[in-house]
Specification:
alpha/beta, seven-stranded parallel β-sheet, 10 helices, 12% strand
């Protein structure tokens, strides 16, 4: 399956729900390949809060935590419904590939999920070389369903994703990217603009959450700092690579 949905359109539900209720041919462990540690952290935390058994693997975790996750996947049956991993784990970790081979042999590998699949395409805005190697999953683990999901793909990128993942005539699901709840404005950059933004936040969105996008880490940090110090608005900076 190839799923192209806007942010907030329900992409995660497309694989999380089947992972929880799977029976028959798709019972077992769902492997989710995700490029961002922050995204993996957010999704696993949300599943934990719903008492859904989930594990994750990345190169930064403690040895004991890594051992716990791998033991949960080796169990018969696996002691998790989903396992989140980075593409580097799939490509470079022989121990993890041994687990995949064992799950496949025991028929306890439910599906592969390639999240943020635009990273597969060399035409995409966030190409990751290790992501391109995900096409080997279809060859190395025959018969295992694969679903690719993204919110960012034009026709060229979409075709490149399906080609690189060796998807043969997949079911394709798309949704309109029109977001009627969003309103956009473009304003000239000028002195005092941050003060205008602070006044607008207090007048229109007091007590609500929101996001201000900036073009650099430094601008994010400076904007959050000035909103706190000069305008008494609670704000924090956030970098996706943190």
């Amino acid at each position: 399956m190839f799923v192209l949905l806007p942010t907030g359109g329900g992409k995660s539900l497309c694989f999380q729900l089947p992972a929880v209720v799977s029976t028959g041919k798709t019972k077992g462990l769902t492997i989710v390949v995700s490029p961002l540690l922050s995204l993996i952290s957010d999704q696993t935390r949300a599943l934990f809060s719903k008492d859904i058994p989930v594990v994750y693997l990345n190169s930064t975790m403690a040895v004991a935590d890594r051992r716990f996750a791998m033991d949960a996947m080796r169990s018969d049956p696996p002691q998790a419904h989903l396992a989140y991993v980075t593409p580097e784990q799939v490509v470079k970790s022989s121990a993890f590939r041994d687990i995949l081979a064992d799950l496949h042999r025991r028929r306890q590998l439910a599906r592969f999920v390639v999240d943020e699949a635009h990273c597969v395409s060399s035409w995409g805005h966030d190409f990751r070389p290790d992501y391109k190697e995900m096409g080997a999953l279809k060859k190395d683990y025959p018969g295992i369903p694969l679903i690719a999901l993204t919110a960012t793909a034009n026709e060229r990128v979409k075709k490149d994703i399906m080609s690189n993942l060796r998807m043969d005539r997949p079911a394709i699901f798309t949704q309109s990217f029109n977001r009627p709840n969003l309103r956009y404005e473009v304003r000239p950059k000028k002195k005092g603009l941050l003060g205008e933004m602070a006044d607008w936040i207090r007048a229109k969105h007091k007590g609500q959450c929101g996001i201000i996008y900036c073009q650099s880490k430094k601008q994010c940090e400076d904007t959050a700092d000035k909103l706190r110090r000069e305008h008494r608005i609670e704000a924090r900076h956030y970098h996706a690579v943190s």
